[in-house]
Amino acid sequence: MPRIFRSPYLYYWYDWTVDNTNSTVYPGECTSIHKYNWTEKCNFVNGNEDCQEVDGFLNYVSILYCTFGHTLYPVGIAVYVIWLILLFIGLAFSADNFFCPNIEVISKTLRLSQNVAGVTIMALGNGAPDIFSSLAGISAERPELVFGELFGAGVFVTTIVAGSVAVTKPFKVMERPFLRDVTFYLVAGFWAFYIFWKQDIYLYDSLGFLGLYIVYIIVVVLGRYVYNKIRTDQHYSQQINEYEETEGSEELPSSPETSDCETTKVLPGSEASMTMGLKLHQLANSLAVISRIEWAETGIIGRFYLVLKAPLVFLFKMTIPLIDPESVTESWCQLLVMLQCLLSPTFIVFATATAFDTIGNSYLSVYQMVLVLSPLLAILVAFTSRSTQPPLYFPVMSFVGFVVSVVWIYIIANELVSLLKAFGVVFGLSDAILGLTVLAWGNSIGDLIADTAMAKRGHPRTGFSACFGGPLFNLLLGIGLPFTIQLLQSRGEHSISLEFNVMTLTLSIGLGVSLLFSYLFLPLFKFRASRLYGIILIVAYVVFLVICFVVQFSVL
Asked: Which residues of 338-368 are buried (b: 16+ CB within 10 A; e: fewer)?
């Protein structure tokens, strides 16, 4: 079955048909490595085709057993844990701080309404880590990992995150959006369970998920239109003075949004006043990865986190054009855009494993053409813009930033899936348990922090609504999009085989129980999310997790 994208490891470093001609071939799965002693483990990895199936840049199984070896094995595990944390940080940071702002600018450039943007392009930004993890998992022919992550993250968010919001700040749930989202989520969850139960997914199945997503968008937009229409009619039926009093009493004071990153203000004055020293200073500020204010206000753990993510942030800023949706002018830095014109195309062709492909029947490689065109783009920016203000075409850079951030997110997700495969081999864990724990927690911990923070600020409805709408979006696109792409690329294959086991059944029951409990509990208690409701959800997740581990290790 062909991959969605090429494997950089197989493209740059390893060729099974060439590198394995003179060595012993070991059949079976990579997890069979535990049957051999340490003197043979490295040979097994090099001679086993499953161990060489890698979608990222590095073969973590080979590095662990051949490079670290028996002596440095514990050191290798520790390094992998740190690298796993870094990959999760990179995945979340690239999505939140580069992908989301760029698609927000794109939605404004395309003049999309808030309703359409909220359930399409903005939802894609919020669910980017889960969706790209799904793309990477399906590309690596590991659908159980995708199923475990999507269902595991769904259970985590609808229990732990929703429960934490209710415990932090009890509130009254908005009835219509809640019932709408949970109803669609139940339908999508049952459909996914049915597909795994029949152990085959066809093109019409995956397209059905995308179709259900379109139906969801239509329901959201029409529902909002009808709701606003009713409110408008009610307002016009009242006296003007009553309308003004009601409008004044319901209007909430707006608070200015703050950005976590430090923006660089363009120095006033003419182009002539901008010396090269000032331009370099502006570039240095734009590339700053740690702000002085942020450093001063954080503790030891916060500073360690800032230092840990600093190299990744620097690479992102060097390659991903970023426009502040609130202030396009303050985002402009001429030297930085020129630098990104040089580096972004080169990064894309090497990251997507197309650098050494030839163009047509010529001897010209893709990377050679990029090395010629990139400087021309930088020179074009230099001659068509000024350092004191952005050019008219500057918002178009958000489309470039969108593409580059997609590439970054996807290669990080690929590395994440490859690393999780190594952990699965080392500890004997199935893809389903890895998906519902490590991958689901890593992709959802940001939701827990953000949603509980919103609850503490007195806005629990915002966080609670995302607990059902977000996982629903991830499930519909996380299954519909990668399987559709994979099936369209599979010539002669009409379906993809899936595995249905006790763990799959446990995940399905866990998600179904979580959704049905909220679906029945909240209407019975007049849609009041109390602390008792939140505590029950948290306890339910702990019980669910214990059952999953019991099933995994066959204690039942």
From this structure: bbbbbbbbebbbbbbbbbeeeeeeeeebbbb
The one-character DSSP state at 415 is H
CA distance 444 to 150: 10
Sign, CA torsion 163/168/174/175: positive
Q: What average pLDDT is seen over the chain?
A: 80
CB neighbours (10 Å) of residue 80?
18
Counting Cα atoms < 13 Å in the Cβ hemisphere of 425 gives 30
Task: List the chain domain ranges.
Answer: 99-230+431-552, 274-387
Exposed e or buried b per residue across 307-323, where buried means at least 16 C-beta atoms within 10 angstroms of its C-beta: eebeebbebbbebbbbb
Helix or strand run (H / E) with residue 354:
none
Give the pLDDT confidence score for residue 273 in this predicted structure.
Answer: 56
Sign of CA dihedral 505, 510, 513, 516: negative
The CATH homologous superfamily to which domain 99-230+431-552 belongs is NCX, central ion-binding region (1.20.1420.30)
Q: Which amino acid is at 92?
A: A
Write the pLDDT tens digit of every residue in 90-102. Answer: 888 887 788 878 8
Tokens of 251: 């209007």
Q: In this structure, are residues 511 and 155 in contact, taking their beta carbons and an 8 Å threshold? A: yes
Report strand pairing: 495-497 vs 200-202.
antiparallel
H or E element in which residue 201 lies? strand 200-202
Where is average pLDDT lowest: 87-91, 255-259, 275-279, 409-413? 255-259
Question: What mean pLDDT do residues 471-485 have?
Answer: 87
User: CA 264, 265, 271, 274 torsion: positive or negative?
Assistant: negative
Smallest CA-to-CA distance from 167 within 537, 466, 522, 531 is with 531
* Residue carrying the six token digits 């606003």: 228
Residue 386 dihedral angles phi and psi, to the nearest 5°: -120, 150
Tell me what pLDDT residue 274 has: 64
Tell me the average pLDDT across 33-46: 87
Tokens of 467: 């607990």
Query: What burial letters (b/e) apply to 6-30, b meaning 16+ CB within 10 Å?
Result: bbbbbbeebeeeeebeeeeebeeeb
Distance, CA of 365 to CA of 265 (rounded, Å): 40
